[in-house]
Amino acid sequence: MIAISTTQPSYLTKIQIHNQVDHGAQTPRGLSHLAQDSETEDLGSLINDFDNKTTVDVGSGYGSLACDIYAKKYESQVGESTKVISINPAFMKPAFRQENFPRMLEDYPIVRDSQHKDNVIEEVINNSIAADWCKLPLADRSVYQYISQYAFPLHCPKDSEFAQGLKEIDRVLKPGGKLKLTGITRPYNSSLIETRLRDLSKYKWRTEAKQDEHNGRHGYLFMQKTAN
Asked: Which of 186, 24, 17, 185 is nearest to 89 (CA)?
């Protein structure tokens, strides 16, 4: 039996969890997707932000980003204390947790081709948590990097949950920590997201990179927490 930590999602309904299992949970959003969506050619700088640091991947799907990083860890490309925590409410669903999840991990090319396949899978599973962005089961200032690809705030249903999600980001990020959001806008919600992102002004975060929807991409936002 796969032992995944679970906390009851604070707002997601059973239907929403089911939809994430059927759609978002099966969409790979790994390191290459993060680079493509943020239009960066400097993969080394992205990898450096994981090196010997703790990252939380919110709306992680089945953990493809964690797979990429743990594979590099066992190839000594990042340090031994490198950690990626995958957060996904879909892990609440037993069928996904016990059947789909291990199969997807084994079929993911980075894992399938790794000489350390079993170690990578074990690391991903041991650091996967069923939760949502409104209530992260993480300690204050425990995370260097918060990443969400096509999840928060794109699929945040209410303004109140968006505001709570921002509070959680600010709570768990260390001073100097980084926030990386991709897929933040689409035609049907661009004005809503833009309005919501104005709430970021109340936090002491510095914008490192931002791009609204263009060239078929759906926008990204990279920020750094500057408060002590």
From this structure: 17
